[in-house]
C-alpha cells in the first residue's frame, strides 16, 4: 500500500533550518544526520530571567524532559537568553517543535531548533561581550535581555 | 509517441505534479473547470502512468476524507471516459479496504467505505451492489461470540455513509434498505451501553445530553429519512456533471465478506458525543444545526477530518478550519471550538497530544482576532459553569489548557466574573479549579505575578510561595533530635564531602525505632533519613539542576538508606515535608529518584495513598505523579521486551547464516547470545511482575479507601456523594482509562483477586464499565 502523499506527510516544522554550527567538527552531512536523529532542542529568545523551572513546566507538556542546560554568558556565567532542552526520545522533541516553537514562555515568543547535542562549551554565548551573538546588536530596549544590545551601548 | 519509454524520473516528476494538483483541488474557485481539465489530463496519462494514478487516487481517498466528494467526482469523470479504469479503481479500493480492516485501521476504513458509497452518486458503482455490501455489513450484528465493538463498527460504517448516499440507495432499493434499517434498529436496541457513564464528559444531561455515538447517529439518520433524505450541506460537485456522468456505465461491487474476527483484531472504542453549544448560543449569527440533524454530523465529521489531516501544522490546520466551505451558513467558530474541545476532552484519551489543541486555538485566535476569542471566552465560561458535573480527568485537561492558554495572553482574564467560587466549600469543583489553574499559571511565570493578576479577594486561592521548608533551620529547632548531625552534615556538604564521609557522620545517629542495632547499623533508621534528606535538599534548593546534582553525587548514601521498603517510603515522606510548597519540585524529584532507582514505583504508589498525603489527595500534582510513575513502569517493560525481541532476531539471523554457510565456528557466538536471551527473558518476567504488582497495589489501595468512605457514610447516614468521593472514584476510573491497554493483560487477576462480586457495587461498577469498553 502506498505510504501516503509525500506532500501531506512532509513536515516543514521538521525541515532543517538555515542554521549551521560553524564550530561543529564533522561534515555538513554528518551534522544533518545528527540533527535528524536528535532529541535535543536549542531554544532562544528567552528572557534572562526565565528559570529552569519555567522551561521545564512548558516543555514537559510535550513529553518527559531529560535535561535542561541553561545558556550562560561566558564571562558572568549568568543566564543569557537561550537553553538546550533534551528529551528522552525524538517523538517528544518533535512535539515541542510542532507545538511550542513560536509560542510564549515567560511572556516572550520563543523559537526552537534542532541541535546536535550538548558538548562542554556549547552552553556559553559566543558573542564578543560574553552573551549571545544576537544580543550584541539589538537596538531596541529589551528589558528581558538586559536592555540595549551591547554594541548599541558602546 | 508510442515508441517512447517513460523514464523513472518522468514518473516521479509527474507523480509530484499530480500530488500537488490533487491536493490543491477545491482550494481556489472554478472547481468544476479544474476537475474537467484534470480529468482530461489524467485520461491522456493513463497509458503511461496508470498504476501511479490509481495509487494516488486511493491515497487521497484514505487521507483527505474532508474532500471526498471532490475526488469521487474526478473518479466519476474518469470512469465516464475510460470504463476499464473505473473498474480497476474500484478493485483497488476494495483491496485497500480489506488491508485496512486487517491492519486494524478502522478509522481509515470508514473513509474508504464512504468514498465507495459516494461513487454511487457519481455513477461509478451500481446502487444495488452497494446495498448488498451494506447488507453484509449489518449482518455482522448477527455474529455470536464476537466483541460488541466489532458489530458496532460495521453498523457505524453503514450509517455514517448514508448522509452522502442514503437518497440514491433508497430511491433504487427501498425495500432492501428498509430491511437493513429494521435489522440495525433491533441491534441498536439490544446492544449493551454499560460503558457510557465512563466516557461522558459531564454526568448531567442538562443542558445537552451526552449521547452514545451510535445512538446519536441513529437519531440523525432517522431524522434524515423522515426528511426524505433531503440534505443540503454536503458539497456535491458531481451534480454539475450529471449529464456526463449519467451516460457512464456503472460497475458492480464484488460481493464483500467482512473479514472474520481474530484474536489480533482491535476495534475502535465507543465514544460519547460531546455537545456544548446549540442555536441559543449565537443568537445573532446563522442558526446552528440541531444535535440530531445530519448537517451537524457532517460538519463535525469534516472538521474532525481536517484536524486529523493537518494537526502537525497548526497554521495550515487553522487556515483549513476557518475556510470550511459553506461557512457563511453556519456559526463556524462555534462548531470549530466545540469540535476542538470534543477532541481535547475525549475519553479515554484525545486523538492527539493535549498541547496541540492549545496551540491550535492560539493560532485560530490570531487568524480571527475579531471573532474567535469571544467564542472561546464564552466556551470557557460555560465550561466553568458546568464544573460540578464534569469528569475529573476532563477537569485536569481543562486546567492544563486554560493555564497554558492564559500564559500566551499575559494572563488576562476577568477573574471577578468567577467570584461565586470564593464563597463555596474550597473542596468543591469551582474553587478547586481556580486554585489549580493559578498553581499551573505560577509554574509558567512566578509567584508575585499570580498575586498581581487576580483581584485581592482571590488571594485565598493563590498558590503558596514555592519555598523550601528546612526543619533544622532556625533556633527553635535546637531541641529536635538529630539537629547537631544536621549541622554537621551541612558543613560536610559545603566542603564537598564524599559519600564515605557522609556515611561516617550518619553512623552515630541513634535509631528511634530499634532497641538494638544490627551489626551493619544500616537497617531502616528514619532519623538518619530525615537529617540527610532534609539537609541535602535544603542546600540544593536553588534549582532543579542543583537538586539533581545532589541526588547524583550522594546516590550511594540514598541507595543505602532507602534499601528497605520502609526506607523508600520515608525518603519520599521527608522530601515531601521539605518541598510541600513546591509541587513541581516534588514531581521532578520523584521522577529522578525512580529513574536512579533510589525508590521504586510501588513505593511511590504506597506513598501517594499514605496518610501523610491524605490532605493533598485530591490535588492535581499527586495524580500527575502517579500517572507519570505508571508510564515509566510501562516504558521500562516495553524497553526490555524490545531488547529481548532484538536479541532473538539476532539469534535467528545468525542461525540462518550458519545454515547457509555451514560454519561451525559460530557455535561459540551462539552460546553468548543464548545466555543474553535467557538473562533478558528473566529481566522481562521480573519487569512484568513488577508492573502487575504496581497495578495491584494501586487498585487495592483505592478499594480500601473507597470502602472506608462508603462504610462510614452508611453508618453515619450521610450521602456518599461528597466532592472527595466524586474525585476519588473518578481517579480510579482514570487509572483504567489512561492505561487500558496494559491493564487488559491483567483482567483475569483483577477479577479474581480484587474486583469480585463481594465488592461494594459503587466500586464494582467502575470495573464493569471498563470491561464493557472492549467487550
UniProtKB/TrEMBL annotation, chain B:
Region called Disordered, residue ranges: 651-670
Keyword Cytoplasm in annotation: yes
One biological process term in Gene Ontology: regulation of translation
Keyword list, A-Z: Coiled coil, Cytoplasm, mRNA capping, mRNA processing, mRNA splicing, mRNA transport, Nonsense-mediated mRNA decay, Nucleus, RNA-mediated gene silencing, Translation regulation, Transport
Principal place of residence: cytoplasm
UniProt-listed SUPFAM superfamilies: ARM repeat (SSF48371)
Cellular localisation: Cytoplasm; Nucleus
Domain MIF4G: 15-225
Gene Ontology molecular functions: mRNA binding; RNA cap binding
Pfam families referenced in this protein's UniProt entry, alphabetically: MIF4G, MIF4G_like, MIF4G_like_2
Gene Ontology CC annotations of this record: cytoplasm; nuclear cap binding complex; nucleus
Listed InterPro entries: ARM-type_fold (IPR016024), CBP80 (IPR027159), MIF4G-like_typ-1 (IPR015172), MIF4G-like_typ-2 (IPR015174), MIF4G-like_typ-3 (IPR003890)
Sequence similarity: Belongs to the NCBP1 family.
Name of the protein: Nuclear cap-binding protein subunit 1
Record organism: Aotus nancymaae
Gene: NCBP1
Amino acid at each position: 500500500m502506498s505510504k501516503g502523499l509525500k506532500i501531506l506527510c512532509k513536515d516543514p516544522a521538521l525541515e532543517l533550518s538555515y542554521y549551521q554550527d560553524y564550530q561543529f567538527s564533522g561534515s555538513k552531512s554528518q551534522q544533518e544526520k545528527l540533527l535528524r536523529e536528535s532529541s535535543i532542542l536549542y531554544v532562544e529568545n528567552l528572557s534572562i530571567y526565565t528559570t529552569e523551572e519555567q522551561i521545564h513546566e512548558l516543555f514537559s507538556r510535550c513529553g518527559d524532559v531529560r535535561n535542561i542546560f541553561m545558556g550562560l554568558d561566558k564571562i558572568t556565567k549568568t543566564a543569557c537568553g537561550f537553553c538546550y532542552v533534551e528529551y528522552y526520545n525524538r517523538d517528544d522533541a518533535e512535539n515541542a517543535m510542532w507545538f511550542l516553537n513560536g509560542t510564549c514562555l515567560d511572556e516572550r515568543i520563543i523559537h526552537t531548533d534542532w541541535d546536535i547535542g550538548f558538548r562542554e562549551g556549547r552552553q556559553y554565548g559566543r558573542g564578543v561581550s560574553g552573551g549571545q551573538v544576537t544580543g550584541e546588536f539589538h537596538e531596541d530596549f529589551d528589558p528581558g535581555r538586559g536592555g540595549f544590545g551591547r554594541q548599541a551601548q558602546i | 509517441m508510442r515508441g517512447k519509454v517513460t523514464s523513472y524520473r518522468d514518473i516521479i516528476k509527474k507523480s509530484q505534479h499530480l500530488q500537488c494538483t490533487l491536493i490543491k483541488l477545491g482550494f481556489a474557485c472554478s472547481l468544476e473547470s479544474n476537475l474537467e481539465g484534470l480529468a482530461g489530463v489524467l485520461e491522456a496519462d493513463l497509458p503511461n502512468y496508470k498504476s501511479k494514478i490509481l495509487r494516488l487516487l486511493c491515497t487521497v481517498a484514505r487521507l483527505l476524507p474532508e474532500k471526498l466528494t471532490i475526488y469521487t467526482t474526478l473518479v466519476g469523470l474518469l470512469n465516464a471516459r475510460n470504463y476499464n479504469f473505473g473498474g480497476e479503481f474500484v478493485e483497488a479500493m476494495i483491496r485497500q479496504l480489506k488491508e485496512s480492516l486487517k491492519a486494524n485501521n478502522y478509522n481509515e476504513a470508514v473513509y474508504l467505505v464512504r468514498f465507495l458509497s459516494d461513487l454511487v452518486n457519481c455513477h461509478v458503482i451500481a446502487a444495488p451492489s452497494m446495498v448488498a455490501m451494506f447488507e453484509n455489513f449489518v449482518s455482522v450484528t448477527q455474529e455470536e461470540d464476537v466483541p460488541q465493538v466489532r458489530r458496532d463498527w460495521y453498523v457505524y460504517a453503514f450509517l455514517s455513509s448514508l448522509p452522502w448516499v442514503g437518497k440514491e440507495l433508497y430511491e433504487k432499493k427501498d425495500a432492501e434498505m428498509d430491511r437493513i434499517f429494521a435489522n440495525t434498529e433491533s441491534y441498536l436496541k439490544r446492544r449493551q451501553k454499560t460503558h457510557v457513564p465512563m466516557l461522558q464528559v459531564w454526568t448531567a444531561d442538562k443542558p445537552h445530553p451526552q449521547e452514545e455515538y451510535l445512538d446519536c447517529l441513529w437519531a440523525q439518520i432517522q431524522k434524515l429519512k423522515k426528511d426524505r433524505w433531503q440534505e443540503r450541506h454536503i458539497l456535491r460537485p458531481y451534480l454539475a456533471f450529471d449529464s456526463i456522468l449519467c451516460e457512464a456505465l456503472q460497475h458492480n461491487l464484488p460481493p464483500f465478506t467482512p473479514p472474520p474476527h481474530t484474536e489480533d483484531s482491535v476495534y475502535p472504542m465507543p465514544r460519547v458525543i460531546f455537545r456544548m453549544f446549540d442555536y441559543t448560543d449565537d443568537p445573532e449569527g446563522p442558526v446552528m444545526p440541531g444535535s440530531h440533524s445530519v448537517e451537524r454530523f457532517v460538519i463535525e465529521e469534516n472538521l474532525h477530518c481536517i484536524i486529523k489531516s493537518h494537526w502537525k501544522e497548526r497554521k495550515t490546520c487553522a487556515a483549513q478550519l476557518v475556510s470550511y466551505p459553506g461557512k457563511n451558513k453556519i456559526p463556524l467558530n462555534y462548531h470549530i471550538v466545540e469540535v476542538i474541545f470534543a477532541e481535547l476532552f475525549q475519553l479515554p484519551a484525545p486523538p492527539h497530544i493535549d498541547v496541540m489543541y492549545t496551540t491550535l486555538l492560539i493560532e485560530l485566535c490570531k487568524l480571527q482576532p475579531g471573532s474567535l476569542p469571544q467564542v472561546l471566552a464564552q466556551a470557557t465560561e460555560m465550561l466553568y459553569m458546568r464544573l460540578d458535573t464534569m469528569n475529573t480527568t476532563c477537569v485536569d485537561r481543562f486546567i492544563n489548557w486554560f493555564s497554558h492558554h492564559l500564559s500566551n495572553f499575559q494572563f488576562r482574564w476577568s477573574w471577578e466574573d468567577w467570584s461565586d467560587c470564593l464563597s463555596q466549600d474550597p473542596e468543591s469543583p469551582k474553587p478547586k479549579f481556580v486554585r489549580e489553574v493559578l498553581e499551573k499559571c505560577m509554574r509558567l511565570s512566578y509567584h508575585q505575578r499570580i498575586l498581581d493578576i487576580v483581584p485581592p479577594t482571590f488571594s485565598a486561592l493563590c498558590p503558596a510561595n514555592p519555598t523550601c521548608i528546612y526543619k533544622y533551620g532556625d533556633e527553635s529547632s535546637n531541641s529536635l533530635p538529630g539537629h547537631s548531625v544536621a549541622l554537621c552534615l551541612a558543613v560536610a556538604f559545603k566542603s564537598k564531602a564524599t559519600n564515605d564521609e557522609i556515611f561516617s557522620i550518619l553512623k552515630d545517629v541513634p535509631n528511634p525505632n530499634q532497641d538494638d542495632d544490627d551489626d551493619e547499623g544500616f537497617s531502616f533508621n528514619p532519623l538518619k533519613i530525615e537529617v540527610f534528606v532534609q539537609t541535602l535538599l535544603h542546600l540544593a534548593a536553588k534549582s532543579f539542576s542543583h537538586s539533581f546534582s545532589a541526588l547524583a553525587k550522594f546516590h550511594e548514601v540514598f541507595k543505602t538508606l532507602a534499601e528497605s521498603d520502609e526506607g523508600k517510603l520515608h525518603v519520599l515522606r521527608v522530601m515531601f515535608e521539605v518541598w510541600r510548597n513546591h509541587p513541581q519540585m516534588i514531581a521532578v524529584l520523584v521522577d529522578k529518584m525512580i529513574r536512579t532507582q533510589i525508590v521504586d514505583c510501588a513505593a511511590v504508589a504506597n506513598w501517594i495513598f499514605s496518610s501523610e498525603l491524605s490532605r493533598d489527595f485530591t490535588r492535581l500534582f499527586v495524580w500527575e505523579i502517579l500517572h507519570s510513575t505508571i508510564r515509566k513502569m510501562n516504558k521500562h517493560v516495553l524497553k526490555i521486551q524490545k531488547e529481548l525481541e532484538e536479541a532473538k532476531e539476532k539469534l535467528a539471523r545468525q542461525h540462518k547464516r550458519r545454515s547457509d554457510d555451514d560454519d561451525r565456528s559460530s557455535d561459540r557466538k551462539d552460546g553468548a547470545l543464548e545466555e543474553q536471551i535467557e538473562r533478558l527473558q528473566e529481566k522481562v518476567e521480573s519487569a512484568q511482575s513488577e508492573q502487575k504488582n504496581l497495578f495491584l497495589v494501586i487498585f487495592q489501595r483505592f478499594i480500601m479507601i473507597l470502602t472506608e468512605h462508603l462504610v462510614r457514610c452508611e453508618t453515619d447516614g450521610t450521602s456518599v456523594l461528597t466532592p472527595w468521593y466524586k474525585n476519588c472514584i473518578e481517579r480510579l476510573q482514570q487509572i483504567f482509562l489512561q492505561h487500558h491497554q496494559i491493564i487488559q493483560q491483567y483482567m483475569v487477576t483483577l477479577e479474581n483477586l480484587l474486583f469480585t462480586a463481594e465488592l461494594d457495587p459503587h466500586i464494582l461498577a467502575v470495573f464493569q464499565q471498563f470491561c464493557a469498553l472492549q467487550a
